[in-house]
Amino acid sequence: MSNAPKPTARMAAALAVEAQAAAWPKTFPGEPDMSGLSQDDVNLATAIYRITMRRWGTLEYLMDKFSTVACAQLEPGVRAALLVTAAQLVFMDGIPVYAAVNEGVKLVRQLCNARDAGRSVALCNAVLRRVAEAAGDRRPVEETWTPAADRIPLGLPEDGYLKLAQPVLPQPEQLRHYLSAATSMPRPLVQAWLEKYGEAQTIALCLQALTQPPVIVAVEDGFDRFAAGPFAAHEAGGFVVWQGGMAGLPVFLKENPARRVQDPTASRAVKSTASLAPKRILDYCAGLGTKTRQLAQLHPGAQIVATDRDDKRRAGLRAMAAGFPNIEVVEFGGVGALAPFDLVVLDAPCSNTGVLARRVEARWRFGPSSVGEITQLQKKIVEQAKAWVAGGGHVLYSTCSIESGENGKQARRIGGTSGEIIDEHLTLPSQMGAAHVDGGYHALVRMG
């Protein structure tokens, strides 16, 4: 990479995408470095980056149609420059083609290996111009989307589509290939869903992953969800959709300790323990502590021990626990000495396939090897944690995955031959706005 260029919105987006490309497929949550950018450029960089991440597969499919070198084989800087420029050419109306292509060429010069600059620039110029020709005028068609080789869906079917000037997508009869290209979804995941859920539900899942999910807040009992305020009532009772901008959200949350950013699906898992009366609870994979807080409020008389493998998350847990006298945060390796527990909560690591609208990068990690690694980790956690349950106690197992190997199979491993699953639910991600729900799974297991 050459010397650091002057900060621009496009460069900030390209550098963030380059980091993802260099780590591929072990993608991670991220945003561009906005240092030195104006607010307008911050907005532009954010938009370019998020569109690129959400539409990565579609963009690379289009570019590969017109390139002699597959995007995946390019060095990360060149790949990133092409991706962020193609994102503007295909999905961002109002940006002139010549300006986007010229900026793309500049990015390639700055981000490529100097020895290959001439070849990379020529490739960039040719491919991007062909992509621009295929994209057409980029104006959304306000009609219900149906699969076609010249239609890129914008979200749910009623959200419309972009009509390409050329039918360059796979034919819909090849549904796995078409959905992969049109909805930016890896083929192994599309195939897995087709086998489990069928064509109609797989299409719905792929389209839902294209949507921008709302910020949903769980509110306290008695809160008037229909009152005037920077929120709208969610269809699920006890939740609102935040509409007031992120700057005001912390103030709203601090007004009552029961308020927390949480989707109804995630909340449902802990609610399944409402009929229990545990005296000691372990939240073993506590993460940011959202379910820990919910447990503390649902079971105020219980002592709750929380931990997480990650040091930074444990630090965050300690800060959160300061406001809850019944929560104790401990080191990850010290849990066994504190057993037994009446209730062990395992919000297990997973493939995140129920929340791909929120975790857009997670889809690219899906594959036989990664799923195998995840299920082995889940098995290890399950075998370790169930030994800490008191006789007649319970394990609450949950994920934000919709894959059976990460869900029901693990729950049955917990129960073994003497346990019993007394509550089990799989939710598929669906809808938008006030009807949005994340996907996820939970099982409450009574141990023998």
Could you give the topology of this structure?
Layout: H1 9-23, H2 39-54, H3 56-65, H4 76-91, H5 97-111, H6 117-135, E1 140-141, E2 151-153, E3 161-163, H7 175-183, H8 187-208, E4 215-218, E5 231-233, E6 239-242, H9 249-254, E7 260-261, H10 264-271, E8 280-283, H11 290-298, E9 303-306, H12 311-321, E10 327-329, E11 341-347, H13 368-385, E12 389-399, H14 408-415, E13 420-427, E14 440-446
Parallel strand pairs: 8-9, 8-11, 9-10, 11-12
Antiparallel strand pairs: 1-3, 2-3, 4-6, 4-7, 5-6, 12-14, 13-14
Helix pairs in contact: 1-2, 1-4, 2-4, 3-4, 3-7, 4-5, 4-6, 5-6, 7-8, 10-11
Overall SS class: alpha/beta
- Oligomeric organization of the protein chains: single chain
CATH architecture of the largest domain: 3-Layer(aba) Sandwich
Order of helices and strands: HHHHHHEEEHHEEEHEHEHEHEEHEHEE
Helix content: 40-55%
Please tell me what the overall shape is.
elongated
Quick gist of this model?
41% of the residues lie in helices and 15% in strands. It is α/β, with parallel strands linked by helices and 448 residues long.
Q: Could you walk me through the main structural features you see in this protein, from its secondary elements to its overall organization?
A:
By secondary structure, the protein is α/β, with parallel strands linked by helices. It has two domains: 1-140, N-utilizing Substance Protein B Homolog, Chain A (Orthogonal Bundle); 263-446, Vaccinia Virus protein VP39 (Rossmann fold, 3-Layer(aba) Sandwich). The protein has 14 helices and 14 strands. It has helices at 9-23, 39-54, 56-65, 76-91, 97-111, 117-135, 175-183, 187-208, 249-254, 264-271, 290-298, 311-321, 368-385, 408-415, and strands at 140-141, 151-153, 161-163, 215-218, 231-233, 239-242, 260-261, 280-283, 303-306, 327-329, 341-347, 389-399, 420-427, 440-446. It has a seven-stranded mixed sheet, with helices on both faces. A four-stranded antiparallel sheet has the order 5-6-4-7, with no helix packed on it. A three-stranded antiparallel sheet has the order 1-3-2, with no helix packed on it. Strand 8 (280-283), helix 11 and strand 9 form a beta-alpha-beta unit. Helix 2 crosses helix 4, helix 5 (97-111) runs antiparallel to helix 6 and helix 7 (175-183) crosses helix 8 (187-208). The longest helix is centred in the middle third of the chain and has 22 residues, at 187-208. It is elongated and about 70 Å long.
